[in-house]
Amino acid sequence: MADFVALVSQLSPVVFAVGGDDARRAEATLQAAAGGEPELHVTVFNSRVTCPYSLMFAALDVVRATKGCNRLMSSREQAGAFLERYLQALLPYFNAEDPAVSKTLLQSLTHSFARVYKLCSMWHVDHPMPPVATLMRLSPVPSSGSLASPSSRSAVPFLNALVMEHNAFDSSRSNIYMTFSNHRKASSTFRDQSLKLIFSHLLQHLRTLEPSIVSNECQYSLAVCEGVRNALLYDFMAIIVDETEETFVSQYPSDWRDILCDIGLVTVICDQQERLPPPLCTHLLKGMVGLIGTRRSFFETNDSKTNWVDFFMRRLTVMEQATGDGRLTLPEYCGTLADSIQRFIPPHGYRDIVAAPSAEPFLEFVAQFTLLMFNIPYGQGGSFSATTQLMLFWNRLTTSKRLNLQPDELPVDIEKFLPTLVVRFVIARVGQADTELDDDAIDSMIVQAETLPPLLAMPSVTVACLTGIANELQSNIPLNSVAQTPSSMQWLMYIGGHLCRYFAASLNDDMLKALQVLIGYCTTAITTYREGVRRSDAVDLSVLTYLQHVQGMFSATYRAGGTLLQLLSATFGEKLQLLQFVLSNMGANLVWSGCSTGVVRRSIEVITETCRDVPAVQLAELQMNLPPIHELPLSLKPESYKLRTLLYQCLYVLRPGAADKLEQFLAGVASEMQLTPELLASGKDNTVAALRVGGWLRDLRGVAAACSASAASFATFLEWVLERSAAFSTLASSAAELNVIVVSSLMKFTLQLVTPANHMQSVNVSSHSHNAMGIYLFQFVSGIVKGVAGTLPSRTAVTWSSEGEYYKRSLKQVYSSVEILHRCVTGDFCPFGAMQLYGDNSFDDVTVGVLSLLQQLPWSYLNEYPKVVNSVVTLLKALADNAVLTPFAAMDATLLSWCITFTVQLVDDVSTKSNMLINALQFLTFVTSLFPDVKRLQSGAPSLASPTSPGRITSRTKERIASAIVNMSPPPWEAIVLSAMRVITEQDRALSGAAHTVFPLFEASADLWRSYARYFESQHPTAKRQRVDEMLTALSNNVISSDRFYNNVVNFRAAVRTL
User: Cα–chain-centroid distance for residue 708?
Assistant: First the structure.
């Protein structure tokens, strides 16, 4: 053991201070020396080394060693004893207060212990591990005003670390530390056994803290306050929710009522939050955020809920008077206070808030605090998160009032604050001095601008607010100053644009004058800005947003009149002048060499949106004089040449008659195609030549997208392409010798050919029995895919300069190939059934070939590219859904097994997006539907499919797939059951898909059901296993159909949540 300590002392500085290959070799040497025995790491701490590198290595690597230690995994007694030894080895570092051991390092030690504890408790769920009781014994509660004992100062940080660690799931470490399934098991066990005890214990410590002594024991005081905060913000459900769902409601268990509804204990938190200095008060206020957002069902009566809301309203209302220590000037504290105010809305809403006796003074306090935050110059602390949260509070409060009350029921309460808030917000933002804003600041700006309009929507204040804004702009904010100030210009554009969009549908005569002033002010500001020499991408994007909203506001004026038409006449004269104003601004962006890719992209999108519904007669009168496309700045740069697709799609719409005069419209592209051999002769490293060739391919992609909605136009375009198919085939077959720009552009064009228009489900190719265009299209795209895929180098066959280079050169083209195959299956333009009947295996061969390229790559690598993963599982699902099963039958057992394993791993990964998860489960449902066929083949029963009957093609295909599954070792069924059931028990999504996946297996195999039931019971403490057995019995009860099983699954999931 002494040798190991010496080795750590020697090599740990190399691991952390040197880096590179030397560091990796040193780390590997140390890990090999430690093996799977964490006791060696404890000897490092027992030797009382003070070298930070040695301590850091031991703290990090002990987690790895613990995870692989079978001795600790199999024996609860040994695990508990090891944890006690590890704790006792760490505690002296907290008592000694050695200056060589930094606060950051001490924090790492507590986190290391918490992670080791979490692993051990996950293995042994029946009883809490001994160290919790030890830590509570070592941290006696001091008398009020007294210093904590040295043992308390050492033990409390460990309690805080335990709460924090069991609450956190790190998906980036799920493979090397703990999967979500194990995290949920450990988190739920800790919640049931220890969390409430630790929270109560820390509350008693919190009660004794005094402002006069906390500076002398800051780490102890900080750990107490953080521990209380972490317990109140604990994830009590420990489930994965849909990624679009916001979780603003605290899910405290019902058995916490006795402690949380004890107003004396909650008062301790509020009192100490007011008494203690920052940052302690900030941590306690964050804990109060959780309390304020308590779920409605937590309260047994409406009176108790109202009293709860009123209590916290009163505590926040007196905040400024109660503290007076300047904390309201601290950005983090203000942001937390704003968050606590905003948290009243999600669980409660307008009715509950105004029902509280303290509602009026509370709203007055919030209004004053909001104005205080508005006064902070945007870009400084507090102007981002705090102001955004406060704007969300007023936004949701006004929305809640309008939705829950009829117009004649609306009392005047929040309305008296809104005009002042709205006008002051606009003055503070548009009239401010110039400030440099990063991307986060601009994102926050957009959110705040979006939340503003609903504040004006209360009927009694709309006109007053709009008039107040217009008067301020005209009288107090000089237009030239705004146009020359980038941050002010951005605010004006975002605020003006969102107001125009919001009130377009409800515009009336009373609003007309104010909106006329607003639009006129913004339009003049844009003209002044364009005439200046100071250009900014951020301002250009805000101008685009404004123009997009304004043209959208007037887009219906061809068919509508009234007030909207009056506003158009007063601001632009007529619709044509508005369109020309928009196009002139967009055209200026396209020809300006300093314009960024993002601005150019948005400019093209705005042109397309502006002209989409304009009559052809009006389009013919618009002017946007552009040079040849290949001479535009966007065509000359690798980062922007792809935008030629959008531009050509836009030009197809903008130029009337393009569909009828396709040859003329594509004359420029045809000329570029003729130059292609000469351009490519200069070699693959000639980027300029590659951009020219890739450019015309991108142009064709844009035309394909533009004409895909019309069957006649698309047929004409396809004929034009197929007449020149030799040029495309030549590019595909020589892909290995081409610049990646050309190959990528070719694949994207091919993909576009089989991509339906936005509003259509299938490719717009006639399915008439005498029309062979669908077959010609399939032959063309499959030839391109086969040609390109056949030239792609593998990840291991070539030495790549970087993983990114391999992705661009090879994996990206495989991704496009998979997408093309998927669109062929779902595009409904090719008769795959007839191809099977006539023995045409071209689709099967291409599909198997492309998936075989991916089979060579490990899951850990593929998972770094979600688009690729999604494309594969979407193709597998499409093949199964559309009964195009011959590619599966053409696979050998190894490739088919890879497809199933790939999908199971996707389901097991809790970071998988919901749509991907659903697609994966649908493919697995197809696989499990083959289980009866597999069992029949294994039993030696005769085939049910006729070997010659054409009507039995699908049955024979399924039998071939089942035969491949028979040859898999191990069989895939248990892995599928575990992954699908984890979705049911641990996630709040994809319930139907998971139920349909396991139903065929549980219906046909009692062994699989019993195996899963034993596994699920083993994951719970002994005290809960009777309840678990009852739940499993209910799940399997009276399962006469998949619908009945799904109903049982719904009840089973609800019961699991109560464990």
Answer: 31
In terms of Cα–Cα distance, which of 248, 290, 244, 239 is closest to 1057? 239
pLDDT in tens, 60-100: 999 888 888 877 877 888 888 999 999 999 998 887 666 66
Cα dist from 914 to 130, 172, 556, 638, 1054, whole Å: 40, 18, 37, 34, 20
Q: CA distances (Å), 600 to each of 505, 540, 625, 669, 788, in order?
A: 30, 10, 16, 21, 31
Contact partners, residue 581, CB within 8 Å, separation at least 6? 523, 547, 572
The residue whose two tokens read 């180098």 is 793
Q: From the CB of residue 385, how many other CB atoms can be counted at a distance below 10 Å?
A: 19
Tokens found for residue 429: 């933002």
Q: In 3-state terms, what secondary structure has residue 228? A: helix
State which amino acid sits at residue 253: P
Distance between CA atoms of 521 and 512, rounded to whole angstroms?
A: 14
Phi, psi at 380, each rounded to 5°: -90, 165
Question: Please, is 798 exposed, middle or buried when counting C-beta atoms within 10 Å of its C-beta (0-12, 13-18, 19+)?
Answer: exposed
List CB contacts of 271: < 8 A, sequence separation 6 or more. Answer: none
Q: DSSP letter at 809?
A: I
Give the CA angle between residues 653, 655, 658 to the nearest 5°. 85
Angle made by CA atoms 635, 637, 642, in degrees to the nearest 5: 60
Tokens of 1048: 């049982």
Cis amide linkage into residue 970, ω under 30° from 0: yes
Q: What token pair was written down for 900? A: 């199933």
Q: Is 378 helix (H, G, I), strand (E, B) or coil?
A: strand
What span, in angstroms and rounded, lies between the C-alpha atoms of 428 and 435? 13
Closest to 745 (Cα-Cα) out of 847, 658, 653, 642: 642
Q: In whole angstroms, what is the distance from residue 318 CA to residue 685 CA?
A: 70
Phi-psi region of 245 (alpha: psi -120 to 50; beta: other; left: phi over 0): beta
Nearest alpha carbon to residue 12 among 52, 43, 64? 52
Distance CA 624, CA 627 (A): 10
Residue 300 has pLDDT above 50, yes or no: yes
DSSP reduced 3-state for 294: strand
Each residue's pLDDT tens digit, 395-426:
999 999 888 777 666 677 899 999 999 999 99
Question: In whole angstroms, what is the distance from residue 853 CA to residue 861 CA?
Answer: 13
578 contacts: CB under 8 Å, gap ≥ 6? 550, 551, 554, 568, 571, 572
Q: What six digits make up the tokens of 1034? A: 């209910």
755 touches 816 (CB < 8 A): no
Q: Which residues touch 615 (CB under 8 Å, ≥6 apart)?
A: 558
Alpha carbons within 13 A on the beta-carbon side of 949: 8
Work out whether the CA dihedral 648, 649, 654, 659 comes out positive or negative: positive
Give the 3-state secondary structure of residue 58.
Answer: helix
pLDDT tens column, 306-325:
999 999 999 999 876 766 77
Q: Which residues pair with 378 in a beta bridge?
A: 380
Q: Determine whether 62 is exposed, middle or buried from the number of CB atoms within 10 Å of its CB (0-12, 13-18, 19+).
A: buried
Cα distance from N-terminal residue to C-terminal residue, the chain: 44
Mean pLDDT is lowest, of 91-95, 276-280, 460-464, for 91-95
3-state helix, strand, coil in the chain (%, to 5): 70, 0, 25
377: tokens are 């110059």
**Is residue 419 packed enough to be buried (19+ CB in 10 Å), middle (13-18) or exposed (0-12)?**
buried
AA identity, residue 852? S
With beta carbons less than 8 A apart as the criterion, state whether 377 and 435 touch: yes
Asked, as a colleague might, if the bond just before 615 is cis with ω within 30 of 0, I would say no
| Phi, psi values for residue 378, rounded to 5° | -65, 135
Q: What Cα–Cα distance (Å) separates residue 15 from each residue in 20, 27, 32, 58?
A: 9, 6, 14, 12
